[in-house]
Amino acid sequence: MLLVDVGTNAEIILGNRGRVVAASSPTGPAFEGAEISSGQRAAPGAIERVRIDPQTLEPRYRIIGVEQWSDAPGFEEAAGAVGVTGICGSAIIEVVAEMYLTGIISEDGVIDGTLSARSSRIHQQGRTFSYLLREGTPRITVTQTDVRAIQLAKAALYAGIRLLMEKQGVARVDMIRLAGAFGSFIDPKYAMVLGLIPDCPLDEVRAVGNAAGTGALMALLNRGHRREIEAEVRRIEKIETALEPHFQQLFIDAMALPNKVDRFPELAKAVALPPRKTAEAGDASPVSRRRSREDRAARRRE
User: What distance in Å separates the CA atoms of residue 34 and residue 26, rounded to the nearest whole number?
Assistant: First the structure.
């Protein structure tokens, strides 16, 4: 079982009856709306769900506080009371995953500017492009910088998970539990498309709510539970990701959507994943460009 509490620092636990390993991975505040151009906390008016039509690239979305989707009759009237104010964490995951599934971004996370000829939703911003999610006040877009922030955050989490899998000597996980308030609102399918969590049967990925709060209550109200928790904590092996030399390579591989090297056969049963492709050389990601420079420098030294 893999247990993940997604936050500014993601807590990760992977174990079975025989051994439990744990790590903390610095995902940063992107999933909470910070560092995202139109990001905000989960509050009335925030976009919480996103779908993009693969043919027209037109979006539809749902906001907190309104049951209808944006393309349903009466949405604008219902949304008038709270407004459409930004994108919260669950929608940030979904919109980037949908952009990948519809071909708006490549597996390297580059927004395809050629699609501007096909859809007015694709806008040029200097040397990069953005996707217009909603025209209005405020104008809500997903920029190339936003995509990069999400890639960095999800790569840190996935690299930490893969590191624990290596320590356990396993190539796959049987079940995943998402803890915390944010984890309760993440759609498992889109989390997997993004490469936030490893491949697993989707019906074995579930939210468990405020697990930390529940555990605290158990420890406070029951001595037996408290002793059990103390014994479990002592046998957990803590892995320091910063001290692991392989973490950097795992992180680089995890920048791709869903991952540069790992395959997702269980996810492919439920979602039609795009064929693997890379961006044009001139649009390569900063990580890819840095690796190319390092490779060229190494060849020169040789």
Answer: 14
